[in-house]
Amino acid sequence: MEIKEPVVDNQRSRFSFFTSIWIVPFVAAIIALWLVYEHYSKLGPEVKIAFKNSGGLVAGQSVIKFRDVPVGKVTRIEIDNKTEGVIVYARVNKDAEAFLNETTKFWVVKPEVDYSGVRGLDTLLSGSYIYMYAKRGEKKKRTFIGLDNPFIDMNSGYYYVVRASFPVQVKVGTPLYFKGVKVGEIDNLELDLASKDLIIVLRVYKEYGDLINSSSKFWVQSLMDLKLADNRLEVNIAPLPILLLGAIAFDTDFDKNYTKDFSKIYKLYRSATDAKEKKVGYAKPNYKNIALSFRGDVSSLESDTIIKYKGFKIGKLESLKIYYNAKLQNFEAECRGKIDVSNFSSNSKDGFKNFKKLVENGIVATLQKPNFLINKSIIELKENNITTPLLFDKRLQAYILPTQEYMNTDLLSSLKDISKKIKSIEFDKVVSNINSLLEDTKAPIKKLDRLLADANKVVKSLNRVVSKREFQNIGKSVDKSLRDFDRSLNQLNSLLESYGEHSLFKEKIDRLLNELHNLTSTTNELLYKLNKKPNSLIFGD
After folding, report:
1. DSSP alpha helices (H): ranges in 117-246?
2. Could you read off the pLDDT of 232-263 as tens digits, one per residue?
3. Strand partners of residue 147
4. How, if at all, do strands 224-229 and 86-93 pair?
5. Which of 36, 244, 404, 417 has a Cα at 20 to 30 A from 47?
6. Contacts of 209 (CB under 8 A, 6+ apart)
């Protein structure tokens, strides 16, 4: 059998060799071209952003975030020769290109640590990045100026202005609370150079905008509250964020008919107690300028010292000048302030009339310290017998209130005076005198016991006499007994003469003597009958 030699098809083998060698690079090239196309098809425009400094941005690493989604990357950073800042170039994805317009804002997010806390914690691992805010606009834009602080959309909340006339430890970002819930934050702080007041712009989140109306009152959130209730002292410490950041709180009376008035400027109170202080009177506030002066210890006076009447706050000082009076050799304080006379109104128009009559009937301003823990005085109006008219000083454009010399109500000083008086008492001598008196009292008491024993013997002797049948010598026996008893009484009287007329000891002895006197009278009547008729006890009268 003949074996045929296989025939090799050279043409087919060449084709197989070609496909097996070049198919892999060919597919790879196709994939690469596709990837390049995908990259450039999604690659958006390059933007140019001017910042004051790089803020920790790194070219080729730092990203741009929009709505917390990465939409671009920093390509390079250059020094701006025209300014003292830098220029950051970044490539933005094509899907975010529509948001590069006149509404676009950029700012750098980086880790920040200060007394208020830590911000930008997400940058500790990823590094600083650029955050973008934008809405769809009409004008395309590629060059921008970066912001120093995060941008806040004015349409994301309602803005209100609060005025503070005292130092406040707050800053931009300090939270605003309503019943313990954060409903906003401080958006801006400005100092009014004319009034020296701090102007605080509050941003209330849109969902809580209806909480603010004309009755709203704002105050600085206290770090610790002390309250005495049910004979217990309650101490409430604010949460840690408030301790670190500080906070502003407010309360309000809800009014369905109220329409928002963003032109109203609210007052910031020092505490919730001041904000919720009771208002007396029927009329609207009617402030009158007043002037008054004090001498002596005026070191605790301050320019915002409050003025009270019957426990109600009716005004406060606005300015204060303290100087040395060489003639009186004392310090003197000239005070200027305002009093809301509407507190004295019984209708809408008679507040000032009632206040004027009150001063003319005799009322003075006194300077007092509320307690020894707080070195701050209060001015209180009190009744006085001296009647003075309420005068108006045209030069000062104020009413002059009569004042009284400073009354030191410092409890600590009073306790010191009492302590000195107690120390001045010589307790050793007092105790020694008491012991001596007790020793002297022992002897009279012993003598009194003996007298009572003698009186008891007399009574027993009398009983023995009455029980006998023979009465011829009864008169002599009774006379002898009476003489002995009379002698004992004389000794007792001489003893009592050495004691006070109104002492308790004398009172008890007098009572005993009266009883003995009554007994003696009865005995004398019996003896008289026995002397007259000895057998009267047997046969009767």
Report:
1. 123-126, 240-245
2. 655 566 565 565 567 888 988 876 666 666 67
3. 107
4. unpaired
5. 36
6. 157, 158, 260
